[in-house]
Amino acid sequence: MSTTAQTRREWLLSDRPQSRLQAKLGRAYVTWRRFSGNGLALVGLGIIVALVLVAIFADLIAPYSPTIGDLKNARLLPPSATHWFGTDDLGRDIFSRIVHGSRLTLFVVILVAVIAAPIGLLVGTVAGYAGGWIDAVLMRVTDIFLAFPKLILALAFVAALGPGIENAVIAIAITSWPPYARIARAETLTVRNSDYIAAVRLMGASPMRIVLRHIMPLCLSSLIVRVTLDMAGIILTAAGLGFLGLGAQPPLPEWGAMIASGRRFILDQWWVAGMPGIAILVVSLGFNLLGDGLRDALDPRSGEQ
Amino acid sequence: MKPLLDVKRLGVRFPTRTGTIEAVRGISFTLGRERLGIVGESGSGKSQTGRAIMGLTPANAEVSADRLEFDGIDLMKAPPRLRRDLRGKRIAMILQDPKYSLNPVMTIGRQIVEALRAHEAVGKAQARERALAMLEAVQIRDVNRVYDLYPHEVSGGMGQRAMIAMMLIAGPQLLIADEPTSALDVTVQLDILRILDRLVGESGMGLIFISHDLRLVSSFCDRVIVMYAGKIVEELPAAELARARHPYTRGLLDCMPRIGEQRHPLPVLDRKPEWAL
Amino acid sequence: MTAALAIDGLGVVYDHYHVLKGVSLRIEPGESYGLVGESGSGKSTLLRAIAGLAPVSAGTITVDGETLGPRRDKAFHRKVQMVFQDPYGSLHPRQTVDRLLLEPLAIHGFANAEERIVRALDEVGLGSGFRFRYPHQLSGGQRQRVAIARALILEPSILLLDEPTSALDASVQAEVLNLLEEVRRTRSLTFLMVSHDLAIITHLCGRLMVMHNGAEVETLDAASLAAGHVTQDYSRRLLAASAGFVRTAEPAAGPTAGRFASAGQRSI
Known about the structure:
By secondary structure, chain A is mainly α. Chain A contains 13 helices and no strands. Helices cover 35% and strands 24% of the residues of chain B.
């Protein structure tokens, strides 16, 4: 058994891969080895994987309904064997609500990443590679977005579009792409005059091809790191909007909204606001640890050798 | 007479995750008041040899030696303080690119003065005078102007002259020059070498000239050491380079194109595994 | 006969600084032409201007009788390719050799890419064992071979070489020079090569131009340079410098002059 593991390792770390697949897997394995050498990063990854699993199997894990409570018998019960995290003022089981709320958190995080990161990447690389007036226009637009405080701008959007979790996502996405554009542009500027980009230009590649196939992959790793580190902030912004009543609407078990509704009881029944608060804290910490680990593993500068 | 530098079985190792890399593997040589060339290709350990003598080996590396003596001082056992004092005062080093070895936010003159006052108690006015004299010695015209310039305001050749002035102002007995002219244009290269040659000759210091260019080194030095894979494969007087015996030395000499010689294709070095043993 | 490459009064201006001041040259098909000079002589800029990588401010470039416009088209890239100086900077750090060689074929819509890649690697003496490696898994010489394979895979007729061996060890330099000579012979390529090293230029090129400060100093053939028939002072200085260090007794060297005299004149 150990010998097959040994040979598999050698196959992955081989200096002369025999196929495209082996070269890719080998590279992925080296990155994984660097990542897994960092204990805290593994803790972060564990938290995020747990979050995903909880979201997928929420129906199986949650012992009670997240929206229908037992008003007569179970109002504001402290944590116990029957209600692990206690119950809220409507008699709903907080553990079940947090478990279902993980879906909303994940929904927000994924959608924001899917919308904001590509916009930022495209704007940044195009601006950086094209230069001239295209760069000037794109970057001034970016500056304008950067000049607004994130939460206030999101508030304005939600106020215009109406409250709701989807609108909150759009608002957060629109306010979080400018930093990504900045990063992508900076990375692009460092590589655009390199010989390997000149070589591709000499091959007759179109500017779009150069940006998409040669420059973007180089910007990707620093962007992934930055997005991961931003996840915590996105969760907090979503929770903040929820807290202000502009994000998810009752009775959706969104963590920020749960804290908002629990703040009336914070002195006597701490668990109503405290439990979702801890959930936000743990998940944010998980994303930060993961981001730090990815930064060390994906760093393009160390990745070259 | 005791040699200025006595090196016996010097080794430099870099432990890495995948195993130890032996950059220098037990080399021995002595240096008197002469010009010694160390020649080798990239990865031969020539630069690490110079750095080990200078005490500038990276912190993660291990240096070992049966003997590493400079003018009777055991460098292996010397406390860090003593090594710092030696560095710059009695052993100096010139690196390849002056762009990276001169402080970009300090004028050239001040850097030379600092270098002098770090090792000698001299007054400001006197230090300035000696710095100007040193700049003149490296054949910089208009020394008063250059004294007040920043490194980015001068050309590569001028920067390297300033570097030499800075290194030689404390009057070292041993100078280690690691590829001192490789970053320079050929015509400037020779000017720098001429200056080095004169200063070394006048003061009678020992010089270790590290380079990849076998022909340049042999035309400049008294004695040449050829390194391959961390070991010395051949040591010979520079004048007898044409009679080199080791196939690696011969191969290195042969594979360079020469003006007025038609050899097509060029002879290629056939690396034998036993050379690295 | 039309020249493979003709340049007339070429000027390049970067930020109001004239890097190239009206240089003209003419290269016949199959010829190997060298540009020699020190840093700042404009020799690399000339190469980049031909490739369309430097802003041309004056003059014309003609390839196979066709004068180039400000934009290079695909037909030009099929005809003219370039090998860069630094093998560590000219290969994309995140792409395997396979990807690097596939890219030009994909851009120009070549069929049988598989076969061409294998053939290109064989031609530069690497073999298919290197096909799926990343640049950081290759030595400097191997990288330069990959760069040559990439330049040749589109089957150009003109190769621009920007100091292709100056970043390599002497022994590896010989291998790469031999390879370049070999491909030039088998494919009857036209070379335009830039170098600061006169010996390399005379080894590989039949004719050469000495450049200084963005202008031509003189044009000669390699044989007359080897015989020392140069007319300009600057070329003479370059020639002398490439002979290596010569220790001379300085008459005004003062009390230590004797030392130099006794050291005598030595050269190789």
